[in-house]
Specification:
Oligomer: heterotrimer
Shape of chain C: elongated
Radius of gyration of chain C: 25 Å
Distance between the termini of chain C: 21 Å
CATH topology of chain B: MetI-like fold
CATH class of chain B: Mainly Alpha
Shape of chain B: elongated
Number of strands of chain C: 0
Order of helices and strands of chain B: HHHHHHHHHH
Structural class of chain B: mainly alpha
CATH architecture of chain B: Orthogonal Bundle
CATH superfamily of chain B: MetI-like
Number of helices of chain B: 10
Number of helices of chain C: 13
Strand content of chain C: under 5%
Strand content of chain B: under 5%
Chains: A alpha/beta, B mainly alpha, C mainly alpha
Largest sheet of chain C: none
Number of domains of chain B: 1
Largest interface: B-C, 48 and 51 residues
Chain lengths: ~325, ~290, ~325
């Protein structure tokens, strides 16, 4: 692979809590080539959001970051605040989960698009307004000129997320991080938004990290999938390979928990029993062991490392992978 | 006089922002209050020159062996006047809020417990009283009734009633929902029993904390009135009147204004610190009671 | 909305009546004879009786109250027996001065409070933040008249920069007029800034945690823009309302300051009336101030209601 766009090496995030340090992200390794899509899947609290914040260098003040994050070959931690600021927008952009809270409620849509264009591309107001309207149209918002004058609360949820996407794409970033972009939206809108993201990504040859709790979202829309559990990557493989042959029992359980159109009515969803472990009390062995059907004694004693013993390009962290 | 209102707002709305540790500041505050209070109580037996004896030859004299802090514009001993002034300011400062806490606490508990017409009537009455800017009312009443320790205490006491009523009512309202009240009622307790046995002990604590804040405010207001010459009748000393008189000598002997100002500031600050710390510790909405 | 207005109005009227009644009673039930006080050393039993009859002091109290109230509603607040000017004229002359002081004081207070609040919100929890918050707390123990003494000593006596007294009307000499308001305005501003700062600071701290601020950072906007455009605007609502309330509350609060700095405002009018035992003026001014106070509070209550749906609207 040529020089990866984004390289995450041994990254950990520790948060101080009254009960002791909380390891939200535990030695994660990931790489992303330009133009490729990576899906990061996991339950709530598995650390995927903290990981995205770490990449963006937007961690809470008290958080401690370990490891290295290289973007376009540069160690992000070594960048000055001003250099980081210049990166954000033209190189690196993000779409947050809830557009009602990620858009400023007292500023117009227009202001929020135009200011990004002015900050990074040095456009004057009228040129920026025109470009803003074009961007809104490109993401499928009707009557874009009127929307520029409106406030976020005057638009529907799906519209707001389109606006957020337009803002993110406005400076032609090389990498877009979409943190649960459809979770706060109606199911009917979800597919539209995801399709929009995929379309724009292909058009601009942009790399994308798609973070979600829903395995169904990443199927067919990503090149590679990484599954996170309790702060660690527990399986990582090219998408097709992952869905064809899941090795980690957790991944299989995630897939099984998805409702399917073709199952008979009133089929009980096989939910994964139990709860994710307390991050302030890490277990000695595999974090998933307490809830795993196939757990054996060595699973509980020793933590499995992420490895690819079959040399198939598919990495997993499990002593007893699925056959 | 925004201070009084601001204190009420913050007392009822946001206690969390302040310091709550019983730190060195708290100890220092208590120490100062003890010191100044003892000096005031024992002023009569302390070896001090008379606070009212005029000595025109010694006008604005600097500190000397005979007059430790010097003399004021009429040759009177400053230290002695400060201590006797403390007596006056502390007396009014402590007695007036007593009226407030007793009457206000009673009315507030009635309003918060019985609700309905009674509550509307009491709250409305307090609103009428609050409609008068406090200083204006205090001035007007002392002008009509005449200047004396008793009148001053009475007016300032009455002015403090609405604030105490508000606190008592707010606390009673939040406590009335709690289980121990419902339990008492289920056991057939009468109103007066619930009010006296269950509610009063719990209302007392925040009220006492507020009382200390009330002392601070009262000292300030009494100081303001005396400053204008409308508080204690001369020649009796009060910190406020000393500051007012000292104002005339700012160019010649600034300490005549700044010494009593410093004493007043230290005392008011001390009561504010103690009251605020106590309030943070006894807030019933913290759920600790 | 109209119903809310109506309810508040219905509540307002009894309060106004009660205020007027209370003012009247305080004035009427005082010990001593008003007629004797007015006549002073010219008082003879015949003259006193004549004046009492003329002023209607022998009528039953409720009749006197209604007479007085009727007069008040027609704009006749009475006439000073010293100077002969009507209460209304006296107040009308002095009111603009007090208003100018109130506005300048609040404005200076904001000038001090806003930068401090922003600084403390951004560096919340730091030593600087705790220091400023401590200062604000300490300031509550320093009443305006003490601050006035300090400022006068510093600026007028020692540095001789600003005048301690000496007021001229604005149209006569704007510069001196403004200069004469600096020290008194600053004095009151020092009393105002702690509350204003605390309010803005806590709102800004809350706003800075919001997602849209993280978003603004993620967009690579300049820190100054994020602070002043994205964070300050949504945080200013409480500040605006408190500023409004405080300007209203300053009615009657300018009393001491006007006396110290010899500004011919309503406060000084009141104090002067007290020194001179001019009870007619006293009663009229107290009534005027109290009614103004009630009306200002009423308007502020209305403002809360008007602004409220927008809060709910904008901050889902």
């Amino acid at each position: 692979m040529s020089e990866p766009l984004l390289s995450i090496e041994g990254v950990s995030v520790d948060l101080p809590t009254p009960r002791g340090p909380l390891r939200a992200v535990d030695k994660v390794d990931l790489a992303l080539a330009p133009g490729r899509t990576l899906g990061v899947v996991g339950e709530s609290g598995c650390g995927k959001t903290m990981l995205s914040r770490a990449i963006l260098q937007l961690l809470p003040k008290r958080a401690k970051l370990g490891g290295r994050i290289l973007f376009q070959g540069q160690d992000m931690a070594s960048l000055s605040a001003e250099a980081l600021r210049r990166l954000r927008g033209p190189e690196l952009a993000v779409v947050f989960q809830d557009p009602m809270t990620s858009l400023n409620p007292v500023l117009t849509i227009g202001t929020q698009i135009v200011e990004t264009l002015q900050a990074h591309l040095g456009m004057d107001t009228s040129a920026a307004a025109k470009r803003g309207a074009e961007l809104l149209a490109a993401v499928g918002i009707p009557a874009p000129e009127q929307r520029l004058r409106q406030y976020p609360h005057q638009l529907s949820g799906g519209m707001r997320q389109r606006v957020a996407i337009a803002i993110a794409l406005s400076c032609e970033p090389k990498l877009l991080i979409a943190d649960e972009p459809t979770t706060a939206l109606d199911v009917t809108i979800q597919a539209q938004i995801l399709d929009l993201l995929a379309r724009e990504q292909k058009r601009r040859h942009m790399a994308m990290i798609l973070i979600t709790h829903d395995l169904g979202v990443v199927a067919g829309r990503t090149d590679e999938v990484a599954v996170m559990y309790a702060g660690r990557i527990v399986e990582r493989a090219p998408t097709a390979e992952l869905f064809a042959r899941m090795r980690m029992p957790y991944t299989q359980a995630l897939l099984a928990a998805l409702p399917r159109l073709d199952s008979p009515p009133h089929t009980a969803l096989p939910a994964i029993g139990g709860r994710p472990p307390d991050p302030t009390r890490p277990l000695p062995g595999c974090s998933f062991a307490p809830r795993c059907r196939y757990a054996e004694s060595d699973c509980r004693d020793v933590k499995p490392a992420l490895a690819d013993p079959d040399k198939a390009g598919a990495f997993y962290a499990c002593w007893h992978p699925l056959p | 006089m925004v201070a009084l209102e601001a204190d009420v707002e913050s007392a009822v709305a946001a206690p969390a922002a302040r310091r709550r540790r019983v730190g060195p500041l708290f100890i220092a505050a208590i120490a100062w209050i003890a010191l100044i209070a003892s000096a005031a109580i024992f002023a009569g037996v302390l070896p001090l020159p008379s606070p009212t004896e005029i000595d025109m030859l010694g006008k604005r004299a600097p500190p000397s062996a005979e007059h430790w802090l010097g003399n004021d514009a009429l040759g009177r001993d400053v230290l002695s006047r400060l201590i006797f002034g403390a007596r006056f300011s502390l007396t009014v400062g402590l007695l007036a809020p007593v009226i407030g806490i007793v009457v206000g606490g009673f009315l507030g508990m009635m309003a918060g417990y019985f609700r309905g017409r009674l509550e509307t009537f009491i709250v409305g009455g307090m609103d009428v009283l609050l409609a008068f800017p406090p200083l204006v009312l205090a001035l007007a009443v002392t002008a009509y009734l005449g200047q004396s320790l008793a009148n001053l205490t009475f007016v300032l006491g009455v002015l403090g009633i609405p604030a105490f009523t508000r606190v008592a009512r707010a606390v009673t309202l939040s406590l009335s929902e709690r289980e121990f009240v419902t339990a008492a009622r289920a056991l057939g307790a009468t109103h007066s029993r619930i009010l006296l046995r269950e509610l009063l002990p719990n209302v007392m604590l925040p009220l006492l904390a507020f009382f200390l804040l009330g002392v601070a405010v009262t000292i300030v207001v009494e100081g303001a009135l005396s400053f204008l010459g409308l508080g204690v009748p001369p020649p009796a000393p009060s910190w406020g009147s000393m500051i007012g008189e000292g104002r005339e000598s700012l160019d010649l002997a600034p300490q005549l204004a700044f010494l009593p100002a410093g004493f007043m500031f230290a005392t008011v600050l001390a009561f504010n610190i103690v009251g605020d710390t106590l309030r943070a510790l006894t807030d019933p909405r913290a759920g600790k009671l | 909305m109209a119903r809310f207005l109506g309810r508040r109005l219905i509540y307002l009227l009894p309060v106004l009546v009660a205020v007027t009644l209370l003012t009247f009673l305080i004035a009427s039930l005082l010990p001593g004879d008003l007629a004797v006080t007015i006549l002073g050393d010219q008082a003879t039993p015949e003259k006193v009786a004549a004046l009492r009859a003329q002023m209607g002091l022998d009528l039953p109290i409720w009749e006197r109250y209604l007479h007085w109230l009727w007069g008040v509603m027609q704009g006749d607040f009475g006439r000073s027996f010293r100077t002969g000017e009507t209460v209304l004229a006296a107040v009308g002359d002095r009111l603009p001065v007090s208003l100018e002081l109130m506005v300048i004081a609040e404005g200076l207070g904001l000038l001090i409070a806003i930068p401090l609040a922003i600084l403390c919100a951004v560096k919340s929890g730091s030593a600087l933040d705790r220091f400023v918050t401590g200062l604000a707390f300490g300031k509550l123990s320093l009443p305006p008249y003490l601050v006035a003494i300090l400022l006068i000593y510093l600026f007028a006596v020692q540095l001789n920069l600003l005048p301690a007294t000496g007021w001229v009307p604005f149209n006569e000499d704007p510069l001196t007029n403004i200069r004469s308001f600096v020290l008194p305005g600053l004095t009151l501003a020092f009393a105002e800034w702690p509350v204003l700062m605390r309010v803005l600071r806590s709102d800004m701290i809350a706003t800075l945690q919001e997602d849209y601020i993280a978003m603004a950072k993620a967009k690579g906007l300049r820190p100054a823009r994020i602070l002043f455009v994205h964070a300050l605007k949504p945080s200013s609502l409480t500040l605006v309302t408190v500023t409004g309330i405080n300007i209203g509350r300053l009615i009657g609060g300018t009393l001491i300051i006007e006396t110290i700095f010899a500004l011919p405002g309503i406060g000084r009018l009141l104090v002067g009336a007290i020194y001179a035992r001019d009870f007619i003026i006293l009663q009229g001014v107290v009534l005027f101030v109290a009614v103004g106070f009630v009306i200002v509070n009423f308007i502020v209550d209305l403002l809360y209601a008007v602004l409220d749906p927008r809060i709910r609207h904008g901050r889902a």
